[in-house]
TrEMBL record, chain A:
It comes from the Bacteria. This is Type I-C CRISPR-associated protein Cas8c/Csd1. The lineage of its organism: Bacteria, Bacillati, Bacillota, Bacilli, Bacillales. NCBIfam families: cas_Csd1.
Automatic annotation (TrEMBL), chain B:
This is pre-crRNA processing endonuclease. It is an enzyme of class 3 (hydrolase). One of its GO terms (molecular function) is RNA binding. Keywords: Antiviral defense, Endonuclease, Hydrolase, Nuclease, RNA-binding. It comes from Effusibacillus dendaii. Signal peptide: none annotated. Its EC number is 3.1.-.-. Belongs to the CRISPR-associated protein Cas5 family. Subtype I-C/Dvulg subfamily. CRISPR (clustered regularly interspaced short palindromic repeat) is an adaptive immune system that provides protection against mobile genetic elements (viruses, transposable elements and conjugative plasmids). CRISPR clusters contain spacers, sequences complementary to antecedent mobile elements, and target invading nucleic acids. CRISPR clusters are transcribed and processed into CRISPR RNA (crRNA).
Length: 629, 239
């Protein structure tokens, strides 16, 4: 199915969440907006009695300002000098009939007449409810500002005009600064008013939270929509629209996914003259699809440098993300020693087990959608990637990725801030840092993330330049701090292992030249480290310092490293024989004709890592034995 | 089927623009080719106003993949803009199609030599088409070769059904319908094991009128008949 149809279906299958306010981790509120509604920050709340008289008014606290308001196509995208009132709650210039009398500046015509006409139509329509009628009765009197001034919400200057901003003169007149001036950033005339109906006897739902009013407006407005046309998304005959939502990624986002204000770029002209000839989309589908998209982005989208990465399933929204590492999917503490002896097959089973939880939650016909959005210019947004795939296939691919691009990592912290070991695939973001350094710009990171997606979803090879770049960084430990290098190393091992399919556990039967060279380097490193640790020296070993040269000219550099090793072997004496034995054993297995200076492939990193890991395991065991003796 | 040909068309990129993304210029490809795009490829292989090409079915051989590129389209008023186009990547389609005579062109009746047209069509396919072949958009160069439909291994073999939602089927041009309108047809294709069976254009129920349009006129004065062409070939002119 097309992405718009899938978004539309997501809206339809989550109708119970429409209008429910949810909070993001940063306490920002978001909600699945109903059709023909939007949110605005209101400044003044006016209570009106059921028979249309002014009751009271108050200035709204900033924390409570966000209000769900009905809107029309025109008002949703109004800008500049366009007069397009919201149907119910709006700015003073629209809702106050006596706006001009109190010094409000009016461009060309009076907005109030448009507003009150629109409200009248609603109030007199068969879809109207009592509350709307009460509000209309009051507002048609055109005395809102007078009442607000009387109730000390708004303030006038000596000439009887609304004060622009709170200054010395005003202070002289009124004393302390009234609350209205602290909630509005601009002038009093720009205040946004919301209305509520007050009843002395009944407890009424707030107007902007009232489902009945919401439905009433949707029905009223859909009865007034334009001509029916074939909707390209659903294939049904429905009232169409040519105005589509912006603010998709955030409130300041002007980019639209569907737009057609373009007469000079000749994007559609030629065969077609007008935009509606090229395509048409129904109002309902456009609203629902865009509202669902905004909601999903707020809920679970990942935004990097304005590029949105979104994964969701139509009926069960939560699916394991593509860009996460295995640890965030299944953060159960892992006992690494056990994990190490795991073969890939066993680990793959583990991953499959973790993903089965998701598998069972998703209904049988659920599809997983993967969507990437970005905009090249401020006005337009493009779909950079869209896939709609069977959930089984998606989870299988995810399991395959996590079990093939896997290595032992130590850079993640758990909830207590302690470093934990985990086995699995690194997060795409971490891959970017491993390949391009920790100061890689967001632009680089988002580009890499988009390139990695097909590797996960389609089980394709990781682009060679990414692996090579990570390999070169991992081969140059002196250029970074220890923890960073360790992180780069384990991630690079994961990337290389994706092609090779090795285990972390040392493969003693492997006679690959590069792998053996890697093992040699590890023994040299561990041997020297042991001496350095015993005398409490913290400098890096020769093996590490020469690592870069070693990867380029292994035979020649190995001679240098071995020369440097001699004093340490001497220092260790008998304790060092164990290491020397390994060196002899490993080196003897490299055929003479291959003991040359041909640069090493990424495989040597696997040999290095596995051998080093093996030695540290052994050493711990060894120490335990010593202690017990 | 009578007058049918089977061919494979492949290319590195394809852009079967979703019309909704065409308006703003940030083009996004449909997941599979439209009837009209395949018909266009057929007409690039061999076209004559005498004939109507009908696409019967398409088999999607490679997995559906997408790749976006930053594009610098030229503004006709001067300068340029920036846009992201999202293409299908590395596509390969097997197509089965046939031609019928265009009964809305009685003036071309003199050219209805079925067997010859069929042979010309097959020869043109053998030669890789008479005109450039492209997949949806001009920058997506493609190649055609004869093949046996259904032969070879496809990615979606045994995949089951994939519902593709509402898609454009194609455009109705006045010379093919007899109505002086340009119309667009929508339909809801379902891909079964990688194969989409197209319904015929006149079977589409979701038809939308776009604008008035007159067919272009063809007759003996501006078309060389198949018979005449054969004579020319025999004489060694017009190779």
């Amino acid at each position: 199915m097309s992405w718009l149809l899938n978004l539309y279906e997501t809206f339809e299958s989550n109708l119970d969440l429409v209008g429910k306010i949810e909070k993001k981790h940063n306490d920002q509120e978001y909600t699945l907006l109903p059709v023909s509604h939007t949110t605005q920050n209101a400044h003044i709340e006016v209570e009106i009695t059921e028979d249309g008289e002014f009751h009271s008014a108050s200035v709204i606290d900033k924390s409570d300002a966000s209000t769900l308001i009905p809107c029309t196509e025109e008002s949703a995208s109004r800008a500049g000098a366009v007069i397009a009132p919201y149907p119910l709650h709006d700015k003073l210039s629209y809702v106050a009939g006596d706006y001009a009398a109190y010094g409000g500046e009016i461009k060309k015509e009076e907005p109030y007449t448009y507003y009150i006409k629109q409200l009248e139509d609603w109030a007199n329509s068969p879809y109207a409810v009592a509350k709307v009628k009460s509000i209309y009765h009051y507002l048609s009197k055109g005395q809102l500002i007078r009442d607000l001034v009387e109730h000390k919400i708004l303030y006038l200057d000596a000439a009887g005009r609304l004060i622009d901003k709170w200054d010395k003169n005003a202070e002289a007149m009124y004393g302390a600064k009234p609350p209205i001036f602290s909630v509005i950033s601009g002038e009093q005339t720009s205040a946004f008013v919301r209305f509520n109906v007050y009843s002395p006897t009944k407890i009424l739902t707030k107007v902007w939270k009232d489902q009945e009013i919401c439905d009433s407006f949707i029905r009223f407005y859909s009865s007034r929509l334009g001509v029916e046309d074939l909707c390209y998304v659903t294939g049904r005959l429905l009232p169409s629209t040519d105005k589509h939502a912006n603010k998709i990624r955030n409130a300041a986002d002007k980019a639209k996914l569907i737009s057609a204000n373009d007469k000079s770029g000749f994007t559609f002209r030629g065969r077609f003259n007008l935009s509606h000839e090229a395509a048409s989309i129904s109002y309902e589908v456009s609203q629902k699809a865009h509202n669902a998209l905004k909601w999903l982005i707020n809920r679970q989208g990942k935004i990097i440098d304005q590029r949105v990465f979104l994964v969701w399933a139509n009926d069960e929204l939560e699916v394991p993300g593509l860009t996460e590492d295995y640890f965030s999917i299944d953060p159960t503490p892992v006992t690494t020693k056990e994990r190490i002896s795991f073969t890939n097959q066993e680990f793959a089973d583990e991953v499959a087990k973790a993903l089965d939880g998701y598998r069972n939650r998703l209904s049988s016909k659920a599809n997983v959608n993967i969507l990437v959005l970005d905009s090249a210019t401020t006005g337009r947004m493009a779909v950079l990637y869209y896939r709609n795939m069977d959930k089984e296939l998606y989870l299988d691919r995810l399991a395959k990725w996590h079990s093939t691009c896997a290595w032992l990592h130590r850079y993640r912290k758990n909830d207590n801030g302690e470093f934990v070991q985990f086995f699995g695939a690194p997060a795409t973001k971490d891959i970017a840092f491993a390949a391009y350094g920790p100061r890689a710009s967001d632009k680089t990171v988002k580009g890499l993330m988009e390139r990695i997606l097909p590797c996960i979803i389609d089980d394709r090879k990781i682009p060679l330049d990414i692996v090579t770049s990570a390999y070169h960084r991992a081969s140059n430990p002196v250029s970074m701090e220890k923890w960073e290098w360790e992180k780069t190393l384990s991630i690079t091992c994961a990337l290389i292992n994706r092609q090779e399919g090795f285990n972390v556990a040392l493969d003693t039967d492997n006679n690959n030249r590069d792998y053996l060279f890697g093992r040699l380097l590890a023994v040299a490193d561990v041997l020297e480290r042991r001496v350095l640790d015993s005398v409490d020296e913290n400098r890096s070993t020769n093996a590490i310092r020469y690592m870069n040269a070693f990867s380029n000219r292994p035979a020649r550099t190995w001679k240098t490293i071995q020369d440097c090793l001699q004093p340490y072997q001497a220092r260790l004496g008998k304790k060092g024989t164990y290491y020397s034995k390994i060196i002899d054993e490993v080196a003897s297995r490299i055929p003479v004709d291959q003991f040359n200076n041909k640069p090493l492939s990424g495989l040597y990193l696997l040999g290095f890592y596995s051998q080093r890991h093996e030695l540290y395991q052994k050493k711990e065991n060894h120490d335990v034995v010593e202690a017990s003796n | 089927m009578r007058n049918s040909i089977e061919f494979v068309v492949y290319g590195e990129y394809a852009l079967f623009t979703d019309p909704l993304t065409k308006l703003g210029g940030e083009k996004l490809s449909y997941q599979v080719p439209t009837y009209q795009a395949l018909k266009g490829i057929l007409e690039s292989i061999y076209w004559k106003p005498t004939l109507i090409m009908v696409v019967d079915e398409v088999r999607i051989m490679n997995p559906i993949r997408m790749e976006s590129k930053g594009i610098r389209p030229i503004e006709y008023g001067g300068g340029n803009t920036l846009a992201n186009y999202t293409y299908l990547r590395d596509v390969r389609y097997q197509v089965r199609a046939h031609f019928e005579f265009n009964m809305n062109r009685p003036e071309m009746a003199y050219d209805r030599n079925e067997h010859k047209h069929h042979n010309i069509l097959k020869r043109s396919l053998q030669a890789g088409g008479r005109r450039d072949i492209f997949l949806g958009a001009r920058e997506c160069q493609a190649y055609v070769e004869p093949c046996v439909f259904g032969e070879g291994k496809g990615f979606y073999d045994g995949y089951g059904e994939l519902h593709l939602g509402s898609m454009v089927h194609g455009l109705n041009y006045p010379d093919e319908t007899g109505r002086n309108h340009l119309e667009v047809r929508l339909w809801n294709p379902v891909m079964k094991d990688g194969v989409i069976q197209f319904i015929r254009p006149e079977q589409c129920t979701q038809v939308r009128m776009i604008k008035d349009m007159e067919p272009k006129h063809f007759d003996e004065t501006n078309v060389v008949s198949a018979d005449e062409l054969l004579t020319q070939l025999e004489e060694g002119r017009n190779p």
